[in-house]
Amino acid sequence: MSLRRYKLLTILLPAVVIGGFELIRHEFLLHYLSMEVGNFYIIILTLLLSYWFSTWMFGKIQSMNKKIAEEQSRTAVYEERERLARELHDNIAQMLFFLNVQLKQGKTEEARSVVSEIDHHLRQAIFNLRSLPENGVSFPERLDRWLREWSAISGVEVERRGEWTDGVFDSSEEVQLFAVVQEAFTNIRKHSEADRAILDWTCGTDGKWSLAVKDNGTGIRPPASDASKYGISMMRKRAAELGAALHIGPAEDGGTELRIEGKKEMSV
User: Fold this and answer.
1) Quick one: angle between helices 108-130 and 139-154, nearest 10?
2) Is the separation of the CB atoms in 217 and 209 below 8 Å?
3) Residue 32 reports pLDDT greater than 90
4) Cα end-to-end distance, the chain, whole Å
5) Which of 12, 56, 242, 253 is most solvent-facing, going by the fewest CB within 10 Å?
6) If you write DSSP's letter for every residue of the chain in order, what string do you get?
7) Angle at 175 between CA 172 and CA 176, to 5 degrees
8) Measured distance CA(17)–CA(185) in Å, rounded
9) Nearest CA to 201 among 260, 264, 123?
10) What pLDDT digit, counting tens, does each position of 99-153 carry?
11) Count of CB atoms situated within 10 Å of the CB of 186
């Protein structure tokens, strides 16, 4: 049913049912129903009609909202796949061009390094695609699997702390959060020279949440002009879409800490 029909039904149904009952009562039932009894019946009829109609209408609204949320989740997944495809294409194209230059110059060691980097990018792309929402697989399960695979390929030990809180994010928001985690760990592998990393999740009963990624490496302190090199602008944008703020700086015990902090209305 279209929204226009829902609107017409909302306007006409109470008027037709209640007005029709009043018309019938005054035309045909005055000899059988006193005014007091008729008023009592009209109150009961109004209550029953309001209860039935509001239950039906809110059920329809809930169903429509669910369909919209599912469509938004699918759109977010498709957009993330397209982003990963573009990123993979651009990175591989650049590295293949550089590999060709190195081979022409006879620089075999540099060429081997480029081939290794291409291999890393391909493996990373596969892992990133696996991290997208799947039926029957929860967010923590996807996150743990991706971190294990990332740790195996990077050689960096990873520890995940904190219990994931259900109901904080929908599927499309999980895609955004996962993309930030992936970018943060990609930076660790590329720039930090770390051998240990921690992902720490906290969420309070008031809805305040934070996700921190820490490493024990040399740290990244890019000037503003180099922010795009580390994907910082992308991470800030995705954090903003979650209604959160992103902070990057030195960790207390050395290395770098990336922290996203936000607040969500908790479902009752």
Assistant:
1) 170
2) no
3) no
4) 30
5) 253
6) --HHHHHHHHHHHHHHHHHHHHHHHHHHSTTTS-HHHHHHHHHHHHHHHHHHHHHHHHHHHHHHHHHHHHHHHHHHHHHHHHHHHHHHHHHHHHHHHHHHHHHHTT-HHHHHHHHHHHHHHHHHHHHHHHTS-BTTB-HHHHHHHHHHHHHHHH--EEEEESPPPTTSS-HHHHHHHHHHHHHHHHHIIIII--SEEEEEEEE-TTSEEEEEEEE-SS-----GGGGGGGTHHHHHHHHHHTTEEEEEEE-TTSSEEEEEEEE-PPP-
7) 95
8) 63
9) 260
10) 888 788 888 888 887 787 777 667 666 666 655 555 556 788 888 888 888 888 8
11) 18
Rounded to 5 degrees, what are φ and ψ at 198? -130, 135
Q: Distance between CA atoms of 160 and 147, rounded to whole angstroms?
A: 9
Q: Read off the amino acid at residue 209.
A: W
Question: Quick check: pTM over 0.70?
Answer: no
Residue type, 80: E
Residue type for position 220: I
pLDDT digits (tens, 9 = 90+) for 173-229: 887 888 888 889 888 888 888 999 999 999 887 888 999 999 998 876 655 445 555
| Paired tokens of 225 | 């002009």
261 or 51, greater pLDDT: 261
